[in-house]
TrEMBL record:
GO molecular function ontology, one term from the record: helicase activity
Region annotation (Disordered) ranges: 1394-1461
Name of the protein: Uncharacterized protein
Subcellular location: Nucleus
Coiled-coil ranges from the UniProt annotation: none
Organism: Caenorhabditis brenneri
Domain RNA helicase aquarius N-terminal: 21-417
Length: 1461
């Protein structure tokens, strides 16, 4: 429920400074007044608790100020003594920990882990307080429950986990009925022995922990009794806090049930306590105030009955679940036969399906006597034995009412719907009921305080089914949130109002993404398939007027098959006079949405009612006259069935008045949901070595190569090492020696094969412990594959030991996780792993997956440059167009390459045939060439070998090999092929033969492309057979999963870049793009490369991000679970001083040698006294941050300062493309673009900077110089998330200048390490305007050419830059003119004047080129007949709404000198 919600919990700097908390903190615990702190006063804690927490009803502003002041770290915990701690003291700690968890990204337990001695006693105090029924208010109890929720969710923190596991051990079964324990022992016979041992060790000291949850449940039941169905307000009570307590308690139980370690023994307790019965019979559940409570109970009910064996963790099959259900009902029928043989014949003689429905059970037992129903419950071991004592019987009957017993038996025996069946019958499109239900899809105002009826992505999951189901639900709700934003935006723009005379809604506005519906009709409802309830297909036709504007018409006419649209029925809550809608006010108060239904577009209809097929460039699009267009739609058949079952008087399908479409890039949710649902309906076969790791159980290192029997002791590292010395440096602590057979007098040269003794697991060889740390190096000599000169591109990177360990681990089977801090060469490591796998295992196929197209292209461009055959590379998806290469690596591009290569190879076969004097068309097809090779070429080669074998070799004179070599004519383009030395000549002859063999091997591979005539078939063959390295984004993998599986796609290895930026489910789907073979997944390696200390996946909705933890990536979760990972520990991006700003976040992160050696890193930034500064920017025109619209933050002073600083750098001579201006908010980015366009764009001497962007969007990119605007002046804002801070500070290579309100950021605990480094330099910008760029001055030297200048504020900076510009204008113009002259001269050299005598020839050549280009485009369009799917390239940013604006244009390219005013 939503009540007592503190809406605005933002704490401003002014509020902090004016509040008494700040003065108290400065006096007692603030870090900046450490020397003057007064003595610890325990009474102060009680006072603060009473006045600042309890009396303010735990006002979030007060709590935030206390937490921000470091109350817990500086005062509460360092002075904590359990024996002297009061209720207020313990609760103060609890509230501070809860606040840290509410902030989400703070290390909540760090204070306790540093001083863990008192934690067990503190935790015991918290548990005791949570059972106190008298001295605490419901709000305080809520805080304690929240603390428990947070504690049970922190299994990765040992001191917390050690305490929570005591509460859910097998000892809690002491409270079960003996008969219930016996039933459990019958299921698992080993349990009896374990229980007997536990009972022997039980002592009174452990009684509190084993009884705690039982007592807490009883306390909850008493609280639930507060609600008797009457309105509490009438009696002067406020039931809101009690409702919140109940909601929070159910959240705790859901968390316990959804983690196997806590569920294992607690699930029996939950059922034995009949808590679900109490909840379902409570009057609260049927009230409006209890709507959220009802949803939470349903979620608890789902997990309480989850299809899993609680003890083993094994997923139960549908058959096993059915057998257990039949067993329960049969037992009930046996009880009827035993006690009521005559009266209940019909009940016990019917089959199970006749009596197991809720309705049948309620009817049967509802009419029975109270005592009779109790007998049934006793027989089912649901209640204590009835006995013969009438007094005890009366007590039991009083304790368990008739209604209570009937509900308990019903819950135990009723038929449970199959989870998969429920999912398959669930509509994929959201409806208006879900879209605007704040309990399910909250608005942006969610602060992290309340409970929501949502799944959570915990550290651990019950089963793979549970893992996928939670992700499915959350992905669907996140999509629903985005759909709601789009619909509200469209409806506000359309301005619906009620017509005065006609009873209909008309629209006074306009939106490009929506059209009023002229006519809508259901045209087909097909009968359901066998075994299904919903129609097989539901088709409809909608008629709309697409208007006259050409661009909008085209967008609507270009709607393609499977595009998703929404049918909306809406009306305004205002009359015709009130058309001024206010987006700041709640949407529901202004517009009433009657219904929303999603649909797929099947196609646009022509005038005859036929679907217009999607056309290619060769076909003319059929013209349709007029403005009316008809589209055939496919409705969700599950939703249609549900709508028809409701049987309303008004058919909602007749009420639709608006058709809404969405941007194609963000409209792929249905395809992803369909993929997840398909995975849930198939047997997800994850590799055995990976299943437990993904679910979060077992040993964290169980998937590491060192623990796998399939580890490979000998590996060919190809070109990884640059020298033998490099090998030694790469394995510190290992003894590196050359293989015994190698000549020690010769320095070993790469490539090397390395044998790791620690991985040799032969049973027959005993290895001494000292030899385990030994690496045997074997230098390899590659056979010459061709007589032609060939020098493949080789690795030139001197990999560090950490990088080499990552490469070694990536080549081994199993899971490899590489943590790559900024600038540490993550991409180079990934490329080397891929290259080494390709050369070591040529038949294996590697799948490359990244979050963004940009990262994928960067990785792919480096792979292209390696020694990898082009025909084995494939880049899937639309991002291929952005590859910076002339070659086309898309599916069609690779097919064209193969066909072109085939023609060239067949030409070589033709040449070979002439060289051997073979007559016939042997090079007509690949098949002919194969026959030619087998029957002619191979025979000639064997005859040659026979002449030079051991028998006749001795008789051959020197030079005879060259004479009798049969392929001399074929290689006549190689002069001096043979030397005359028979031994050397034989090596040359073999290399020639290998060259010929390769020709025919390739032709044999290409033969399929001759047999497959269709372009689509050829691309599919290329994908599943030919390509060895396939690259795609995670979203493309999710969208195309079904298609890839049907094609028989296969792969052995996955390399996943940007793994920390990918949602859990989008990380998981690439594991299952292939069907299992013989029940096993063929995946051998999974390499995940990412950085969990940088920004996580984007989740737009705050509730899903904070409450459901949806922003958690699988990579970050595995790191939290202590899965082994390799951290790259040397950065080479930034100068050492800038790198210090974020190195503290990583363990032992140092610098590569070139950072300390190259001049660009050692030289100072011209015109600046320091390489980086935090520049304090005061108010400009009396204003700091502003908020023109909700969540749209701007700071004009910082924007003007940033643009002036950029202009100053340009005047000094800094290149524009080397400077980026970044900010932490979209509103400020827009303002920066506006100011920059107004001040710089039209001036060719200045121009636009290389990039203006937000920090979130700039992740993964870098530039030499970065100007960063922090915007906020009232409070810290979301830069408090240390991950965002790391990204912001690590984008610059040489210079970083941060603009912000220094005092706002300097006192923040999370930012302290970085702020201390910033504090080394002044808070005002110090410049050297007399020093032009570039300079030879070292960064640690003081300039001797003049005195530095201090900039006071924005006004000072802008005035100075204007004067500085005017003073340097003549010199800048002269430099500009010189540059333009140089440019024009270069153009004249590149494009010389056309000779008139060659004019005709040149024109013909141009014509041929043009025609060839047109033919190529025509062919490509023809091949691309299959519809391209737009896949989602998710914008990696959880940001505020952006005001519509044009994107910044690129910096102007000089064309001709411009007159400067």
């Amino acid at each position: 429920m939503v009540a007592k919600n503190h809406r605005d919990v933002v704490v401003t700097r002014g509020a902090i400074e004016s509040d008494t908390i700040s003065s108290i903190a400065a006096k007692y615990w603030a870090p900046f007044t450490k020397e003057t702190h007064e003595k610890f006063d325990v009474k102060l804690i009680d006072t603060i608790y009473e006045n600042e927490m309890l009396k303010t009803q735990f006002n979030p502003k007060k709590i935030m100020m206390l937490e921000f002041s470091q109350y817990l770290e500086g005062y509460l915990w360092p002075n904590y003594k359990p024996e002297d701690s009061s209720k207020a003291y313990n609760l103060s700690i609890v509230v501070m920990v809860n606040e840290k968890f509410r902030e989400r990204n703070l290390d909540s337990w760090s204070s306790f882990t540093k001083q863990p001695e008192q934690f067990p006693a503190f935790f015991r105090k918290v548990l005791e307080l949570s059972l106190d029924e008298n001295s605490l208010s419901p709000s305080e109890h809520c805080a304690l429950l929240t603390f428990l929720v947070n504690s049970f969710g922190s299994v990765e923190t040992p001191i917390v986990h050690n305490e929570t596991r005591k509460l859910v051990s097998i000892e809690i079964w002491q409270g079960l009925l003996p008969s219930q324990r016996e039933d459990l022992f019958k299921k698992q016979k080993k349990l009896r022995k374990i229980w007997d041992n536990v009972v022997k060790k039980m002592s009174p000291d452990t009684a509190f922990h084993r009884e705690y949850l039982w007592k807490l449940i009883e306390k909850f039941k008493k609280t639930l009794q507060h609600f008797d169905g009457s309105e509490g307000e009438e009696e002067g009570e406020d039931p809101v806090d009690y409702i919140k307590y109940c909601e929070r308690f159910i959240e705790l139980l859901i968390d316990l049930e959804s983690i196997l370690q806590t569920r294992r023994f607690f699930n029996s307790v939950l059922h034995s306590s009949h808590l679900l019965t109490n909840c379902l019979l409570s009057p609260l559940i049927s009230t409006e105030a209890g709507s959220l409570f009802f949803q939470l109970v349903q979620l608890l009910k789902f997990y309480a009955r989850f299809e899993i064996d609680d003890l083993s963790g094994k997923q139960l099959t549908h058959k096993e679940v059915s057998e257990q259900h039949y067993k329960n009902v049969t037992r009930l029928q046996k009880a009827a036969f035993r006690f009521f043989k005559e009266n209940m014949k019909e009940f016990y003689l019917l089959n199970v399906s006749g009596v197991d429905t809720r309705r049948a059970l309620q009817k049967q037992f509802g009419n029975m006597a109270h005592e009779e129903v109790y007998r049934f419950a006793e027989y089912l071991h649901l209640v204590p034995e009835f006995g013969d004592d009438t007094i005890e019987q009366a007590k039991l009957l009083s304790r368990f009412s008739h209604e209570y017993l009937v509900e308990t038996i019903t819950l135990h025996c009723e038929r449970r719907p199959n989870q998969l069946t429920q999912l398959n019958e669930k509509p994929l499109f959201p409806t208006e009921k879900v879209i605007w239900d704040e309990n399910v899809v909250p608005y942006e105002s969610y602060t992290g305080e309340g409970v929501l009826a949502l799944d959570k992505l915990n550290l651990q999951f019950l089963t793979l089914h549970d893992y996928l189901l939670r992700n499915f639900n959350l992905f669907q709700l996140e999509s629903t949130y985005e759909i709601r934003q789009d619909l509200e935006d469209v409806l506000f723009r359309m301005k619906p109002f009620q017509h005065e005379s006609r009873n209909e809604t008309v629209f006074a506005g306009w939106a490009k993404m929506a059209l009023p519906i002229d006519h809508f009709q259901i045209t087909e409802v097909a009968k359901p398939l066998v075994g299904e309830k919903s129609p097989a297909v539901v088709r409809a036709v909608v008629t709309v007027n697409i208007g006259r504007r050409q661009d909008i018409r085209q967008e609507w006419e270009n709607l393609r098959r499977h595009d998703v649209c929404f049918l909306v029925a809406c009306r305004s809550k205002r009359g015709a006079a009130g058309l001024k809608f206010d987006v700041r006010r709640p949407f529901a108060e202004q517009i009433e949405v009657l219904s929303v239904r999603g649909c797929d577009v099947e196609g646009m209809l022509d005038q005859d009612g036929h679907i217009l097929e999607e056309y290619t460039g060769l076909e003319k699009k059929a013209r349709i006259t007029g403005d009316m267009r008809k589209f055939r739609l496919l409705l969700d058949s599950n939703q249609y069935r549900l709508d028809m079952e409701e049987a309303n008087k008004v058919d909602l399908y007749d009420t639709f008045n608006l058709l809404v479409r969405r941007d194609s890039k963000t409209n792929n949710f249905k395809a992803v949901l369909q993929t997840i649902r398909d995975l849930l309906n198939t047997e997800c076969v994850v590799p055995d070595w990976l299943t437990d790791v993904i679910l979060g159980y077992g040993e964290p290192d169980s998937a590491h190569y060192s623990k796998l029997s399939s580890a490979v002791p000998e590996l060919d590292f190809n070109d990884t090492f640059l020298s033998f010395e490099h090998v030694k440096q790469s394995f510190p602590g290992y003894k590196v020696e050359v293989v015994e057979t190698y000549d020690k007098s010769i320095e070993p040269v790469p490539p090397f094969k390395l044998c790791f003794k620690e991985l040799e697991r032969r049973q027959d060889v005993e290895v001494k412990p000292g030899d385990l740390q030994t690496i045997v190096v074997t230098p390899l000599v590659r056979k010459k594959e061709t007589p032609y000169p060939y020098s493949p591109n080789k690795n030139q990177v001197l990999f560090t030991p950490a990088q080499v360990e990552a490469i070694k681990s990536g080549m081994q089977p199993g899971l490899t996780m590489v943590v790559g801090p900024p600038g540490t060469g993550k991409t180079d490591v990934a490329v080397q792993i891929i290259s080494n796998i390709y050369h070591n295992w040529p038949n294996q196929r590697t799948l490359i997956v990244t979050h963004s197209n940009q990262a994928l292209n960067q990785l792919f461009e480096k792979i292209i440059a390696l020694d990898v055959d082009e025909r084995h590379l494939l880049r899937m998806g639309h991002g291929e167009e952005a590859l910076e290469t002339e070659k086309d690596f898309s599916r069609y591009g690779r097919v064209n390459y193969v066909l072109k290569e085939r023609i060239q190879l067949l030409a070589k076969v033709e040449k070979l045939a002439k060289a051997l004097n073979v007559v016939g068309d042997v090079a007509y097809t690949c098949e002919n060439a194969g026959y030619f090779f087998r029957f002619s070429v191979f025979r000639v080669w064997e005859e040659f070998l026979a002449q030079v074998t051991a028998k006749g070799a001795a008789k051959l004179a020197e030079g005879q090999v060259a004479e009798i070599f049969p392929f001399k004519k074929f290689f006549n383009d190689l002069p001096d092929l043979f030397s005359g030395n028979n031994s050397e000549d034989m090596k040359v002859a073999h290399s020639c033969w290998r060259h010929i063999e390769q020709i025919f091997e390739k032709l044999d591979e290409f033969r399929a492309f001759e047999l497959l005539r269709n372009g689509k078939d050829r691309t599919e063959y290329l994908l599943i057979k030919e390509a060895k390295i396939i690259a795609m984004t995670c979203t493309h993998a999710a969208l195309r999963r079904n298609e890839l599986v049907k094609l028989g796609f296969r792969y052995d290895n996955i390399v996943m870049e940007e793994a920390a930026q990918i949602l859990e489910v989008e990380t998981f789907i690439p594991l299952l793009l292939q069907n299992p073979q013989d029940g096993h997944n063929r995946l051998k390696r999974w390499i995940m490369i990412g950085d969990h200390h940088q920004l996580p996946p984007v989740v737009q909705n705050q509730a899903f991000q904070k409450y459901s933890n949806m922003e958690q990536s699988l990579f970050a979760r595995l790191v939290r679970l202590s899965v082994p990972n390799v951290q790259l520990d040397r950065q080479g991006r930034a100068r050492a001083q800038i790198a210090e700003l974020y190195q503290w976040r990583y363990k032992n992160l140092g610098n590569l040698p070139h950072v300390d050696g190259l001049p660009q890193f050692q030289n100072a930034n011209a015109g600046f006294a320091f390489p980086f500064q935090l520049i304090d920017v005061p108010d400009f025109n009396g204003q700091g941050e502003t908020q023109p619209s909700p969540h749209f933050y701007q700071n004009l002073g910082e924007a003007e300062y940033a643009v002036a600083l950029y202009t100053y750098m340009r005047i000094l001579g800094y290149p524009a493309e080397k400077i980026s201006i970044l900010t932490t908010y979209n509103g400020q980015a827009q303002l920066l673009r506006d100011v920059c366009q107004r001040r710089c764009e039209s001036n060719p001497l200045i121009g636009m900077p290389g990039k203006i962007s937000t920090v979130d969007k700039y992740q993964g990119q870098q530039n030499d110089y970065v100007i960063l605007s922090l915007v906020k002046t009232k409070n810290i804002g979301h830069i408090r998330d240390v991950r965002r801070l790391v990204v912001a500070l690590s984008r610059a290579r040489l210079g970083l200048y941060v603009l912000g309100r220094a005092k706002v950021f300097m006192d923040c605990l999370e930012l302290t390490p970085a702020m201390r480094i910033f504090a080394k330099y002044p808070r005002k910008l110090i410049i050297l305007p007399f020093e032009p760029h570039p300079t030879t001055r070292k960064h640690n030297e003081r300039s001797q050419d003049g005195e530095p200048m201090e900039i006071e504020d924005t006004l000072h900076m802008t005035h100075f830059v204007h004067e500085f510009y005017m003073g340097n204008l003549p010199a800048m113009k002269a430099a500009y003119d010189a540059a333009m002259e140089e440019y024009m001269e270069a153009q004249r050299i590149l494009n010389p004047p056309i000779d008139e005598t060659q004019m005709e020839v040149e024109t013909e050549e141009d014509k041929r080129r043009r025609e060839a280009l047109e033919r190529k485009k025509k062919q490509e369009m023809d091949d691309k007949k299959e519809a391209d799917i737009h896949f989602e390239d998710m914008d990696h940013e959880m940001q505020e709404p952006v005001a519509p604006a044009a994107s910044a244009p690129p910096a102007p390219v000089p064309q001709e000198p411009m007159q400067q005013e």
